[in-house]
Specification:
The protein has 327 residues and is of the alpha/beta class. The chain is built from 13 helices and twelve strands. It folds into two domains: 162 residues, Rossmann fold (3-Layer(aba) Sandwich); 152 residues, Rossmann fold. Helices cover 42% and strands 17% of the residues.
Amino acid sequence: MDILKQSYAHGSSPLPSNAAVTQYHIYLFGSNISKSLSPLIHSILFRANSASWEFHLSQTTDGNIFWKQLRDNTCIGTTITMPNKVSFGLLLDDLTDEARVIGAVNTSFVRLDDRGQRRYIGTNTDCIGIRDSILYRMPQAAAMAKGRPSMVIGGGGAARSAIFALWKWFGSTKIYVANRLKAEVDALITFFQSTAPDMTLQHLATVEEAATCEAPYIVIGTIPNDTPKEPGEIICRQIFDTILRRKNKGIVVDMCYLPLPVTYLYTNGQQNGWAVIPGTEVLVRVCIAQHILWLEKDVNKQGVEDAISAIWKVVNQGQSGPKASKI
């Protein structure tokens, strides 16, 4: 609930006393979103809190459509996914610290200024979903991770959120980045030098480095569950295989959950004695954080369990589309 308290720094609540029975609407903006699991999860969470709100898909990259929908007084918030996480964030009135440091927005919510006018605030709940999925499983993880290295696999937007979470809430002294393209890692390092200059990132580029570096406690995967084919992909897999086989064990989180949540990284981590967390749990925690900002209350435990059970069932039945997760 810390994110709710922090959200009021951007203004007061826009919700009336009868908000739960008011017909408010939430929209997901992105491309290739027809298979999104967000409508299923949010419908379960709204129902668990007796809120008669509706969740809609808006498959577009047009900022004008986004802005027009945002200003509808029945719109109480949005989810923003690829490729809109940067461009749509620029259309909002303000950003939270998370969104500003990460450089991407996946959620907007509404607060009122001193004159009662609506303000549209952008944030990033991907990083909160990572944090909360780890702490829910292992409350001691923050203390165990502090002062130790961590590792992120990948170099895209999800990697940014993972890096932020490890730096902000788990006290990682150093964050290794393994990725198929060195240029993407260089871009990540350059970016975070401008937004979080006290963060230490290191490209883990070879199997030899993976075998001799100080072992990471938390490993977060942010890449599709594809069989590696290109040289960079093959080396990247060899690097995290080497890390997982090392003596010191910790926590593996794989944000990819499609077409199945039991990925290569998940299975390999489990077989090597690591505690593993699937991407389905991260996705639910991302949606919970959004729900808290919109409905301005926590989600009851049964609603969370129902949401996790529902999406696990859907993805294991093979009903969910593309290989890479979009959250």
